[in-house]
Amino acid sequence: MLGNILMAIQIFLSIVMIIVVLPQQSKQNQPQVFIEDSSSQAYFKPKGKEAFLNKMTKIVSILFFINAIALVMVMK
């Protein structure tokens, strides 16, 4: 019974992870900016949609792995 519930949660988390990861742009697509003057370098943080997707990716992946470990322990 508990194994079935954990398996359903695992499937749901995997679908959510796919939905969260796919819209993100890869680092290769972003232009690389090299500034020679070290004093004028600015730290650019992701904003808006990118920041939200980054946070959601971290949260969902942590939940995914915790659930996977729990699923292994229950099925043992």
From TrEMBL:
Swiss-Prot/TrEMBL GO biological process terms: intracellular protein transmembrane transport; protein secretion; protein transport by the Sec complex
Listed transmembrane segments: 6-22, 56-75
Membrane topology of the entry: Multi-pass membrane protein
UniProtKB keywords: Cell membrane, Membrane, Protein transport, Translocation, Transmembrane, Transmembrane helix, Transport
GO CC field: plasma membrane
InterPro entries for the chain: SecG (IPR004692)
Subcellular location: Cell membrane
Keyword Ribonucleoprotein among UniProt keywords: no
GO molecular function: protein-transporting ATPase activity
Keyword Hydrolase attributed: no
Family: Belongs to the SecG family.
The protein's role, per its UniProt record: Involved in protein export. Participates in an early event of protein translocation.
UniProt name for this protein: Protein-export membrane protein SecG
Species whose genome carries this gene: Peptostreptococcus stomatis DSM 17678
Taxonomic lineage from the root: Bacteria, Bacillati, Bacillota, Clostridia, Peptostreptococcales
